[in-house]
């Protein structure tokens, strides 16, 4: 009875956040993370609205998710035509999803002013579209857009839109606070009245959902208020991404609903990955993680000096509302050297490196780690660079090659840009000088490095740059700002991330690209060693 259906719309509604743009590969990575987190319904986008969404749904047909259902999103048909003759509904069918979410107008203002049609035609649009998909074997979630504003303005008409949707076969009715202007007491009252008005509509229990926006900074509170009134589906986005001020933050909602109120959203083991998934998605989105985000932020369980630290060391309950481990976060005693060592050991173990506290190298590693982080390095999303740092301190870092220098020349010809990179390096005692072209300096540098190394390490031909992200760390410094570059590399089977930081974007890119190649070679070396151990004789 306490099981809730979590519906994630990061890839559609969240993608409407200003300054956020997902590639197809970004969307696939996020979808797979949400799948592993145990989210049952993942809204993938609007098939046909843009080529990326079409490709996303096509690729998921080839490689389906493990447990989650991906959902296609669209509007009701347009006024004055039949759903069967509506071209925009055909790509939704082609997406071949089991579930389809349709949004329709609840507010008479939007019908007459936005759609420029009649109230009766809007009802026909809702009915016809839902029946179109139901007749073709789809299960339908009906999103009642602007529900709360519409109900407050004209409750009789707003309720008629829901009754039509239920009669047409919608399995879920989602009540949307699209403008984000409601407060929790508004949400609770209107849901109570809505449930009472719909009781006679069907013999089956009506399955309600809630979709809230954060324009009044109450999206999470509003969604919780809805659940307390019997709503069984909760829609939101990871990290609260979304248009204007964002959507209800699923990181906060899932944690509050399950750990505080006793509702079942995901499994406990999946809950312990909440912080990891939140930070992963922020890096894919190329947005700085919110350090002060509840539950998953870096500062959510940080303690600094004085009475707080003393009390927490005796009993964490004194200043923590729940154990940080329950959401995959960790306690940070900001000024405690011992706590810093503990954090280092936890990080090292997560990458398979066992550092004992008595190891004298631990303090050296910790000091180096703090120096690098103060310079702008971020190892949460650059696990390969972190492992190389650990292994270098332990004397286990393989010296595949040494870079003696590089030069990059860029040439602009009208609208075309060309780059030529020359690298000088040493491999197994041999000096190599190589050059390569690319459509940009990073592309040229990567090509020159791989061209110089492929004769020594043939497996490097399988390495590719999968992603390249740049973040300005101190924007007030203008063109002299320090830059962090995050590079994702792949060998076709595995992916790894490396990081570089410098006031020179080329230098930062060089650091990340070189470490990416080195880490890829170390993976191959370990795979070969493991294979030789398993081989007979």
Question: In a few lines, what is going on in this structure?
Answer:
This protein is α/β, with parallel strands linked by helices. The chain is built from 18 helices and 16 strands.
Q: How far apart lie the N and C ends?
A: 58 Å
Instruction: Please tell me how large the radius of gyration is.
Output: 27 Å
How many DSSP helices?
Answer: 18
CATH architecture of the largest domain: Alpha-Beta Barrel
Q: What is the β-strand count?
A: 16
| Gross morphology | globular
How many structural domains in the coordinates? Answer: 2
Low-confidence stretches: 335-339
CATH topology of the largest domain: TIM Barrel
The residue fraction in helices comes out at 40-55%
Explain what you see:
This protein has 537 residues and is an alpha/beta fold. Helix content is 41%, strand content 20%. The protein has helices at residues 24-37, 51-62, 90-94, 108-114, 119-135, 147-153, 155-168, 184-198, 219-228, 250-260, 268-271, 274-284, 306-314, 337-350, 361-375, 383-393, 441-453, 505-534, and strands at residues 5-8, 41-45, 69-75, 99-105, 139-145, 172-177, 208-212, 233-236, 302-303, 332-333, 402-413, 416-427, 430-438, 464-472, 483-490, 495-502. The protein has an eight-stranded parallel β-barrel with strand order 1-2-3-4-5-6-7-8, surrounded by eight helices. Strands 11-12-13 form a three-stranded antiparallel sheet, with helices on one face. A three-stranded antiparallel sheet has the order 14-15-16. Strand 12 and strand 13 form a beta hairpin. Helix 5 packs parallel to helix 7, helix 6 (147-153) crosses helix 7 and helix 17 runs parallel beside helix 18.
């Amino acid at each position: 009875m306490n099981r809730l259906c979590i519906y994630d719309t990061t890839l559609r509604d969240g993608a409407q956040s200003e300054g956020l743009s997902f590639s197809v590969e970004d969307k696939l990575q996020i979808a797979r993370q949400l799948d592993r987190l145990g989210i049952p319904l993942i809204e993938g986008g609007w098939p046909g609205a843009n080529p990326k969404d079409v490709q996303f749904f096509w690729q998921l047909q080839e490689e389906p998710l493990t447990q989650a259902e991906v959902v296609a999103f669209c509007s009701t048909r347009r006024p004055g035509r039949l759903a069967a003759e509506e071209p925009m509904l055909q790509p939704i069918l082609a997406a071949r999803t089991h579930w389809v979410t349709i949004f329709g107008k609840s507010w008479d203002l939007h019908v007459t002013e936005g759609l420029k049609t009649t109230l009766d035609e809007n009802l026909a649009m809702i009915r016809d579209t839902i029946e179109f998909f139901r007749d073709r074997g789809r299960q339908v979630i009906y999103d009642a857009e602007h529900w709360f504003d519409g109900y407050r303005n004209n409750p009789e008409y707003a309720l008629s839109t829901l009754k039509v949707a239920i009669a047409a076969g919608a399995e879920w009715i989602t009540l949307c606070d699209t403008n984000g202007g409601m407060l929790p007491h508004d949400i609770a009252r209107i849901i109570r009245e809505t449930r009472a008005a719909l009781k006679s509509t069907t013999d089956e229990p009506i399955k309600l959902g809630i979709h809230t926006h954060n324009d009044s900074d109450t999206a999470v509170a509003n969604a919780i208020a809805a659940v307390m009134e019997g709503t069984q589906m909760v829609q939101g986005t990871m990290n609260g991404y979304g248009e204007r001020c964002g959507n209800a933050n699923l990181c906060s909602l899932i944690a509050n609903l399950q750990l505080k109120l006793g509702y079942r959203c995901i499994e406990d083991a999946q809950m312990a990955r909440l912080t990891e998934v939140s930070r992963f998605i922020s890096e894919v989105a190329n947005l700085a993680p919110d350090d002060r985000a509840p539950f998953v932020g870096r500062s959510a369980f940080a303690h600094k000096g004085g009475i707080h630290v003393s009390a927490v060391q005796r009993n964490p309950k004194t200043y923590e509302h729940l154990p940080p481990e329950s959401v995959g976060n960790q306690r940070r005693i900001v000024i405690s050297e011992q706590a810093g060592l503990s954090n280092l050991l936890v990080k090292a173990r997560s990458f398979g490196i066992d550092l004992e506290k008595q190891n004298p190298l631990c303090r050296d590693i910790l000091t180096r780690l703090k120096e690098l982080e103060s310079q702008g390095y971020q190892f949460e999303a650059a696990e390969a660079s972190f492992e190389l740092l650990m292994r270098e301190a332990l004397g286990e870092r393989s010296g595949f090659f040494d870079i003696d220098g590089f030069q990059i020349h860029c040439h602009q010809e009208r609208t075309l840009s060309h780059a030529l990179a020359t690298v000088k390096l040493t491999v197994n005692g041999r000096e190599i000088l190589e050059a390569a072209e690319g459509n940009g300096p990073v592309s040229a540098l990567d090509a020159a490095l791989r061209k110089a190394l492929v004769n020594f390490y043939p497996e490097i031909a399988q390495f590719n740059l999968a992603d390249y992200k740049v973040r300005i760390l101190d924007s007030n410094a203008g063109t002299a700002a320090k830059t962090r570059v995050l590079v994702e590399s792949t060998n076709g089977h595995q992916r790894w991330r490396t990081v570089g930081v410098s006031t020179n974007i080329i230098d930062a890119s060089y650091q990340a690209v070189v470490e990416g190649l080195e880490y890829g070679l170390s993976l191959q070396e370990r795979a070969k060693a493991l294979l030789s151990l398993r081989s007979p004789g």
